[in-house]
Amino acid sequence: MRRLTAKEFDASVFDLVQVVVDSETALPEDLRTPYDNDYTKQQASEALITAADSLAGSIAAEVVADVDKRASIVPCEPSGPTDAACYQSFVASFGRRAFRRPLSDEEKTGFDRFLQFAEDEGDFWIAVDSALRAFLQHPSFLYRIELGVPVEGEDGVFRLTDFELAARLSYLLIGSTTPDWLLDDTEGGKLATIDGVRAAADEMLESARAKSQIARFHAMWLGYEKIPLAADLAADLQKETGALLERVVFEQNAPWVDMLRSTETYLTSDLATHYGLDQPSGAEGWVSYADSGRQGLLSQGSFLSAVAKFDDTSPTQRGLLIRTRLFCQEFSLPDASLMVNVDEPPAGPDPNACKELRYNMWETDGCKMCHSMLEPVGFGLENYDTAGRYRETELNRPDCTISGEGKLEGVGSFSGPSELANMLIDDGGVDACIAQQLLRYTLGRYEMSDYEKNLLDRLVPIAQNGGELRFKDLLIELVSSDTFRHRRLEAAK
What we know:
This protein is mainly α. It has 25 helices and eleven strands.
């Protein structure tokens, strides 16, 4: 059982009843690891029950009060308060959409009890209101229940039903409930074959919803989901990164590492001024980086703003971001005796020294084994502030000139995002990490089994096809894999 995230809940509600909700503050917090859909972090609670009840009530009330909204979900004109045939038609059609599968006869009968409310009040829409409240807080709506059916001869392995598979596909690719066309295809048996799954995925990936969903996955993965800058600037930065992502992944189906090697970027006039780059030919458009030293995603303000700390850049956090999100390396917490107060800026030997002397954990005994892989990477990006602007001296320290020299341990030295991006590409580890990050998001958990690691070993070469990994190809191969179409019994904890 995987509870809908707040974003998935909101999108599903809108697709079902055209009501806009923002449940992020109402539902229990979606803990990020870095993704918001890690079911191992989800807990059933009274807070969830209370919030779901309150949200369901307000949504149902808005729908029933709006003639157009209620007409969109009730496929008939009721003849009176006790029109059972019309009501049951609504329950069957809406229930199929809300539960992402046809209702059982027992479930349909259970909803019949609300007809008594309509009779008592003399109002057909009382029954619809009550049914909507029940649907929108029902476990089959709030949770993606993936039980499957046992696979003969494979202990602990279950093939997802076609409707479970359709829902898994839909929430991965468009971030919302199974659309009507896919429910129809599923009911017609089209998802029973691998070719059918691939065809459905291809169709979804043509939609604007898929572009938005994949952009959100990247934002969570690479840390820029919420940009901590002024709203207008943050919107321009999101547009810049979104345009690059759409070009590489969708328009060109190019290797994902083109996100790192792009020699031009999409700018508004204000953002060009912000960066000190040439103005676009119109109000906004593609602009060459020329000889600025910038290149691809690593030089965009969205990425560079991701791990700001103490109102400034953090070489440690930037190095950690590169290592964990693009190399998929893991770092364990140090021994308690070596722990420092991370809520205070590092002081180093001299708290008044320039940053390269204060951030010295990478040279400190007991710490340097990990930190030698972090700060030297961050130092190579120090010429770019938390909003992506180029600078030559530290924040509020004109006496501290930034060298901009960095080092990727075991690979080589670099200066700036262009040289770092090329090193990451040449190293060759990014493709495998992309696949690992996508699989974590798809599975809804951080930890992976040996079976899933073996899947990655097979997927990456296929998506590379003798060259470099293409993200859409990776997605298609993933959703048509046995791992995606099955579940394996997890050990009790």
